[in-house]
Amino acid sequence: MTEEIAAALSNGDGYAIGSNVADWDVDGTTTSPAECAARNGLQDVAMALLQDQADVNATDENGRTALHGAAGLGHVAVVRLLLDSHADAGAKDVNGCTAREFATRRHHSDIESLLCDHLELEVKDSEPF
């Protein structure tokens, strides 16, 4: 699957991939191209997809986003990219789990801290003066 993404991008078809929000089958689960790139730690591919208007908060059939995948698999650079692209750090999957919980379960303390810091900033930004 990642080879298909990389090949399409190298052929200049990034927009077509990015616009197919959730129709890729990865390990029996429908997922977005951005989530596939994030799960595989492909920062450049994820960046290109996001620049081509891929939905950073698209979910798979389990309610998981690209941020869930990147956080759970320890891809710090991709997590930063997704957060910078306005990924919802508080998004919950069908089981009520956030990306931070995925990182915690898999002992990715650096990502857990990054997500906690990001959520704290979101709360501060939303508080009235």
Automatic annotation (TrEMBL):
<feature type="repeat" description="ANK">
    <location>
        <begin position="62"/>
        <end position="94"/>
    </location>
</feature>
<dbReference type="InterPro" id="IPR002110">
    <property type="entry name" value="Ankyrin_rpt"/>
</dbReference>
<keyword id="KW-0040">ANK repeat</keyword>
<dbReference type="InterPro" id="IPR050889">
    <property type="entry name" value="Dendritic_Spine_Reg/Scaffold"/>
</dbReference>
<dbReference type="Pfam" id="PF12796">
    <property type="entry name" value="Ank_2"/>
</dbReference>
<keyword id="KW-0677">Repeat</keyword>
<dbReference type="InterPro" id="IPR036770">
    <property type="entry name" value="Ankyrin_rpt-contain_sf"/>
</dbReference>
<protein>
    <recommendedName>
        <fullName>Ankyrin repeat protein</fullName>
    </recommendedName>
</protein>
